[in-house]
Amino acid sequence: MNNISLPDLNKARFRSAGYKAEIIRNALDLNDVQRNLGSGLNYHVITYGCQANVRDGEVISGILEEMGYAHTELLEEADIIILNTCAIRENAEKRVIGEIGFLQNYKRIKPSLILGLCGCMAQEDVIVKQIMEMFPSVQLIFGTHNIFELPKLIENILVNNEKSVKVYSRQGNIYEGLPSVRTSPFKASINIMDGCDKFCTYCIVPYTRGQQRSRLREDVLSEARQLVSAGYKEIMLLGQNVNAYGKDLSSDNGDFARLLAEVAETGIPRIRFMTSHPWDFTDEMVDAIAKYDNIMPFVHLPLQSGSNSVLKRMGRRYTNDEYIALFDKLKSKVNELAVSTDIIVGFPDETDEDFEDTLKIVEYCKYDNAYSFIFSPRPGTPAAKMTDSIPMEVKKERLQRLNGRLAYYSKMNNLKWEGRTVEVLIDGPSKNNPTVYSGYTPQSKLINFTLKEGQIGDIINVKVTEGRKNSLNGEQE
Ligand code: SF4
Q1: Is there an atom of ligand 1 within 6 Å of 277 CB?
Q2: Which end of the chain has fewer surrounding CB within 10 Å, N or C?
Q3: 61 neighbors 179 (Cβ within 8 angstroms)
Q4: Closest-lying ligand 1 atom to the alpha carbon of residue 196
């Protein structure tokens, strides 16, 4: 096989009119050699970034187990370590490069160890070149479109003692039937689509994940029904922009509102979805969320900026008034809805007035939760080439002010739950205090509580005793 195929971000920009992604079923076709390559060996996958990456990590684990590898939590026991990476911000990339440096120690002790890199960073030509130069011991690099080829790539390393670098920069296909090892026996993610065609000017995702490709509704529903039969309690429907689901398919397939309703009809106790671009949020979607009790009353609605001039330069395709109108509609139709958001501070040439416009929306929406960041230029995106006269000190000061308001509203929203009873899906012992349990309320609020009876994966009633800045405390009723 040709074992070196490098990424090209320029090619990844390309979208051809009328392109139809191919659905490839039973994409993992292992030969006898590949089926036994990992026998007696251990794997460890380290995943960074979003839920889509977490789901990819589950599929990578599934493929490795089909090859005979066994999972290990201990890096020193691993025979293959795969870093499943995120490219959304420069900091995330720096962390991965630091981690590869750290993993060199394990490679020195065990020279047969395979170090691998995949995910969004693997789609960036500059980064891959840098990693290949800095760390010649990284033998395996594969892109977001190449996961199904993992067995061939590992075979090439183990049998031919050659590097395997395989990264396609294409629009992409849909791979059905890949195995996966789900990280939880009661909460599961379903990828309903991959890729994105929105091309927000700051975002690298349309380049790293390719053209929007929706899975057929029947394939999604069949996965959801299998999860219901297996006793799962919560399904997260995943996509870079779930609201645009189905736009790339024939109208018979239906849109996200229809999919959401039909997943709700499977009877799964809890449904969540992530992420929603405000531009594609239809009335039918709002109605579906309002109608079904098992669609959780929580929406992540990225604002990014409250300034129309910045929104325009970001290519977000909505105005601040349109955002507020959607927010109001959701709040008025969906009972006890919680809303979270993403905000970018210090977009190129963001003025004081632009920033004040963002604060105004924060004061209006009083978000339950928010992720706020200083703009991080991603090489190859239009925003990375924009002139920027705003000093970093100003950006930091703005972020601090914004975070102060976000924390205030998060706490205010949490205080409102004190004394009330909420349904909680028990995740397990709390990370910070193993004497109490933790889980999430329908509004996606983290709650720590004392458990009287029940077990992990049960949905129980908990009385909220305290609203804190980022979580709730409570006791089982
Ligand atoms: S909608 Fe915009 S921010 Fe979201 S993945 Fe697509 S390009 Fe990136």
Answers
A1: yes
A2: C
A3: no
A4: 6
